[in-house]
Amino acid sequence: MHGPVQQQCDISSILTFSCGLCSRRKKSSMHLMLSICGSTQHVISIASRAVDTMSRAVSLCVLAALTASASASSDCSSSREKSGQGGLSMLQRRDTVEKGHLGSGNDGWINVCYFTNWARYRTGLVNEGRDAFEMGLDGSLCTHFMYGFATVTPDFMLKSNDPNADHPSGSESQDGLCPEECNDPSFSPDWSDPDGVRCEWPCSATRVRRGYEALTVGMKQKNSAIKALISVGGWNFNDCTASSSATYGQGAATCELFSEIAADEGKTRTFAANVIAFCRKWGFDGFDLDWEYPVVEGHNRVGGGESPEDYANYAVRHSITL
Fold it and tell me: Quick one: where's region Disordered (predicted)?
């Protein structure tokens, strides 16, 4: 199995992210971006700051990096970049970025681009059923891509909520990247080798890449310095007032999961290990935790009120070492 996460990870480059105020419904949104490297030791380091937004809503701005080294002696560190706008955001505008320097942080610039997998289904647009990667997105526009959204199962596993949009050729059965040989359109199988790679559907060598592999393989072929992160959560995932049928298996069925995970160290460890496995399987460099919203009524308890314990639990659980 192709393993680009381990091959392309640079432990000297710590991915960073900050969360500010979310304009939708004037609530606070919490994001955590983790960078995953290596395979031996995983350390989470955090810097956080609370910002008053309303009389009872707060935004916890998190700067986080999850790194791992090939040896147990490697260290992790995180740093906050300056934006010149009160420090609430480290994202700065940049028109283009040079190949080979994306995500390095050497010049202080990062361009984070959110990608939504459901955009392919919008009608009346130029995409005509395709995602942005299928349409030949420029590899020099963004340093980091947030691919939204994956969902979480009751046993704290990550999975695609729409295999048609996310998996190779839209196949639910192809639950992983295609063999590396199948990324070469000129590949010809050795039929004399009974165990040889065949590159048959859904991994045909001439397939049009979509979803996960279009980002973690296709875009990285255009620019190997791009960082690809899977976004987990989102509005539907955290909306306790929505039925499961109206949110494609999410809503009331999933809205309590982030609060449940944050409240228990064992569940946090299980979730973290599953996130790492998912990212390695699909070639992601890390993940973005989009919790909408901690503490807030209607987003963490079905039929219940606020969950004030989320605030402390969220920060405490990210001080653990795996």
Answer: 160-180
Give per-10-residue mean pLDDT for the chain (322 aa): 35 28 38 44 30 28 28 31 30 44 60 94 87 94 96 98 97 96 93 91 96 97 96 98 96 98 96 97 96 97 96 88 74
φ, ψ at 196 (rounded to 5°):
-75, 160
- CA pair distance 110, 92, nearest whole angstrom: 7
User: Tokens 């509005």 — which residue?
Assistant: 235
143, 285 Cβ separation under 8 angstroms: no
DSSP bridge partners of 147: 115, 230
Answer whether 63's CB lies under 8 Å from 47's CB. yes
**Neighbour-count burial for 162-197, b at 16+ CB within 10 Å, e otherwise:** bbebbbbbeeeebebbbeebbbeeebeeeeeeeeeb
Q: Is 112 helix (H, G, I), strand (E, B) or coil?
A: strand
H or E stretch including 312? helix 309-317
Residues β-bridged to residue 146: 114, 229
Please list, in sequence order, all residues whose beta carbon lies within 8 angstroms of the beta carbon of residue 198, skipping any fewer than 6 positions away: 189
What is the residue extent of each domain of the chain? 4-189+197-317
Select from 281, 60, 40, 26 the least CA-distant residue to 176. 281
* Global model pTM greater than 0.90: no
Kind and range of the H or E run holding 148: strand 144-152
| 62, β-bridge pairs | 48
